[in-house]
Structure formats: C-alpha cells, structure tokens
Design brief:
This protein has about 325 residues and is mostly beta strands. Helix content is about 0%, strand content about 50%. It is elongated and about 65 Å long. The relative contact order is 0.07.
C-alpha cells in the first residue's frame, strides 16, 4: 500500500511484521520523495521488537490515528513529517528526527531506549514542534522522553513518570521553548529531574513542575546555558544534592514564578547557583528546605539580583563568600 500508485493509504486492519519479513524490513518501510498520507483508523502497526517500522525522506508525510508499537528506533525521518492523534507504545526508541517533525495530540508511553539518547524523540536536525501531547513512563540514558540538539517548541504537553540517567523528561542542546506544559513525577540521576539545559537558550513559560526528583543534579531543572523562567510553579520537587527546584551554573532569569515546598539535602531548598548571573523578580518562595540555604544558595562567583520577591523564611539567601548581591523591593 505504501509503495502503490496512490499517495493516500487507509488502514483497514492491524499490520504486524511477519516472521519472513524481518530481514527485508529490518530498517523499516522506506518512503523517499513525494507526498504520502496514512490514515490509521485506530489500527496498530506492530514490529514485534524485530525491526524499525518506517524510514521517511518524503517532501511531506502525514500520519493520523495510528498506533506505532514494538519498533526498534521505530521511525527515522529526514524529510517533513506530521503526526496527528497517534500513539507510540513500547518501542525501543520511538522517533529519530533529522528533518522537520510536527507532533500533535500524540501519546508516547513506555518507550524504552536502554542506553540510547531518548525514549520518545531524538531530534538531531531541522525543526521540532510538539503540541498537546503526552509523554508517560518513557526511559533512556540521556533523556527519558526527548533529547534535542537542535531548535524546537513544546506547547501544552504533559510529561509524567519519565526516567533517565541524565534528564528525566527533556534534554536541550539547541535553543528551545517550553510553554503551557506540565512536568510531574519525572526522575533522573545526574541532571534535572525534569529538564536539563546544556549550553542552549531555553525559555520556559506558564508551566508547572511537581514532585520531580534527581539524585545528583536538580529536582526539576539543571541549567548549563541561558535559562529564562516566567509564570511557572515549582512545587514539591526534590534533590539529593543541590537545587530542590533549579540548579544553575550559567545565567538564569526568573519572573512571576512560585517556589513552594521544594527540598534539597544539601544546598538551596529552591535554587542553588554555582556561577553566572541570577536575576529573580516578582516571585514568591515559601516552605522550601535545604541544609544550606533554605530558599536560595549562591557561590562566590555569582551575581544575585532580587527585585520585588516574597521570601517567607528568615534566610533569604546563603552567601558562601559574600558575592555581589542586590536586594530591592
């Protein structure tokens, strides 16, 4: 059907990789050049854990209402690809994107990429846009859900119970925007329980972070780039070392944001900063706890500026070696 004379395919039944097809389709069904529209009608395409499923390099490929299941790096894309109202389930790596990828109303659940970059999406090139999608219980080495080295946008998405050695949900190495999204119960070991920013310009707005956890990095966000946070809520995040909500080692700007009941076993119940410029305005801190610095802990290399912030606890900041601090409002 894919290689037939028409550019429109409608599935009328589930599709399962046959035992005699494993070698022929080990790299997936290839489609190169032209336009293709696949309407899944709710049916499943199942690779049985034996092969990839699709390899796209088309001018534009559109897939709607299908279930992609049990693929090995299920879909590779170097062209222009759009998914609408689909599901990825139990793939060993869901999507590798080196082109233009748009995802809308998708569900990524229990995709496991053991030792790989990401359970759901590895974004290496082009552009990535993800709208109104859910990422649940995905797991990999670098990022539980998404690992991106190029630019992209996330809007209106939910990230729940994703896990990784690096970032629980999202790792950014390219400029990125995250808007109107929720990160809850994600877990990591060495970076951010929810997000790790690695030398990128990252904007996070109108989003919530709740009960995310990391052993060594930061409860919610680990920042090694330029991070802007606005109109967000950090609630009950935790870390084994520094930064119950955010750990910063570069430049961090926060505005109109709430930090409530975050926990750190060592430094910075809400925020720990280890170098760079930390600017916080029109934000509120309450109930955060850290062994050193109930709310904010900063190092001697930092520049800290607080403007019109509400800090309920007595200790508004712990200054290791009296860095430059500017408190106003």
């Amino acid at each position: 059907m894919i290689h037939g004379p028409r550019d429109r395919v409608v599935l009328t039944s589930d599709i399962t990789l046959g035992r005699r097809e494993e070698e022929e389709y080990k790299n997936g069904i290839e489609f190169k050049g032209g336009h293709l529209r696949i309407y899944g009608a709710g049916h499943t395409i199942d690779a049985r854990g034996k092969s990839s499923i699709f390899n796209f390099d088309g001018e534009h490929v559109y897939i709607e209402n299908a279930v992609i299941k049990n693929g090995l790096d299920a879909i590779s894309n170097t062209g222009s690809l759009t998914f609408v109202e689909c599901s990825f389930l139990k793939n060993s790596g869901a999507i590798i994107n080196d082109g233009k990828l748009r995802v809308e109303n998708w569900t990524f659940r229990k995709n496991l990429n053991d030792g790989g970059a990401a359970g759901a999406i590895v974004h290496n090139g082009g552009y990535l846009q993800i709208d109104m999608s859910d990422f649940e219980e995905n797991c990999a080495k670098d990022a539980g859900a998404i690992c991106s080295s190029k630019s992209g946008t996330i809007f209106g998405c939910n990230f729940t119970k994703n896990q990784a050695d690096g970032a629980g949900a999202l790792s950014c190495k390219g400029d990125f925007k995250v808007m109107h999204s929720k990160f809850e119960n994600n877990m990591a070991i060495r970076d951010g329980g929810a997000i790790s920013n690695r030398n990128a310009d990252l904007l996070i707005s109108h989003s919530t972070f709740k009960r995310n956890f990391a052993s060594k990095g930061s409860g919610a966000i680990s920042n090694h780039g330029n991070l802007s946070v606005e109109y967000c809520d950090f609630n009950e995040n935790g870390v084994g070392l520094c930064g119950g909500a955010i750990r910063n080692v570069c430049n961090l700007k926060i505005s109109e944001t709430y930090f409530r009941y975050n926990r750190s076993c060592l430094r910075g119940g809400a925020i720990s900063s280890d170098g760079g410029i930390l600017e916080i305005s029109d934000s509120s801190f309450s109930g955060n706890r850290g062994a050193i610095g109930e709310e904010i802990c900063i190092s001697k290399e930092d520049v800290l500026k607080l403007d019109n912030c509400r800090l309920v606890d007595d200790k508004i900041a712990y200054n290791e070696s009296y860095p430059h601090c500017d408190f106003s409002g």
